[in-house]
Amino acid sequence: MDITIFYTISAFFFGSIVGSFLNVVILRLPNEGESIVFPASHCTSCMTDLHWYENIPILSFLVLRGRCGHCKAKISFQYPLVELTMGLLSAALVQKFGLSIDTAGYFLFCAALLAIIWIDIRHQIIPDVISLPGIIVGLLFSLVSPTLHWKASLFGILAGGGVLYAIALLYFLWRKVDGMGGGDIKLLAMIGAFLGWQALPFVILGSSLSGTVVGVLAMIKQKKGGQTRIPFGPFLAIAALSYLFFSEQILQLYQLYLNYAIPG
């Protein structure tokens, strides 16, 4: 077997295991005072502790056919989806960066974003316990990363947090209501820390466009008009992941646009 394929497959399995832990984080972290370590994994319906073979990422869900092996309650599809997504992200990192310090740093970044996506969807909050340490870790990562300069990271933190804060302030002054939570501001600062300021235009534009489309669809479905509320964090996180893996293609498209928009 080719060594790269071996590393990629190994990364997938490791990522899926971390994804299993992320499910615990997503479930318990928003609950004040609840530990993400204790008690051991258990069915949320009958509270029975799970055996090791009932806790194998992805595989256990398939074998159990999506139901608890004890009380037969349905298991949320979120569990295998998070495990699969983290496994694929881990494998993609190895394919892009190899076994490097960048892979290790961006693995933490992807894990944080994946947890934030699901927590924000479920609870419409972005925990400071993820985003604030993430800002610091991102800046420290830039000191050892061969591809991210610390100045780009530092400016990314300042610009990322500052841009969304300015937008949120202007919206509040205009509408007299909060249009964006502080969690989104800290999340964009974390994204700027890991990806540098160069990523921010795409992340802001991409998340705004996708968020607008989903927001309009939600308004039509919920029939609440301007009172419709959707979490913005997932759109920021998905745009950041897109830039992480496809930055070269994004910059090529941007350059192509400039060549056509500015003749000569």
Summary of the model, kept short:
This protein is an all-alpha fold and about 260 residues long. The protein has helices spanning about 5-30, 60-65, 80-95, 100-125, 130-145, 150-175, 180-195, 200-220, 235-260.
Tag the structure with descriptive keywords.
single chain, 264 residues
Structural write-up:
The structure is a single chain. This protein has 264 residues and is an all-alpha fold. The chain has two domains: 1-98, no CATH class; 100-264, no CATH class. Helices cover 69% and strands 0% of the residues. The protein is built from nine helices and no strands. Helix 4 packs across helix 9, helix 5 (128-144) runs parallel beside helix 7 and helix 6 (150-175) packs antiparallel against helix 7. The longest helix has 29 residues, at 233-261. The protein is globular and about 65 Å long. The N and C termini lie far apart (50 Å). The mean pLDDT is 88.
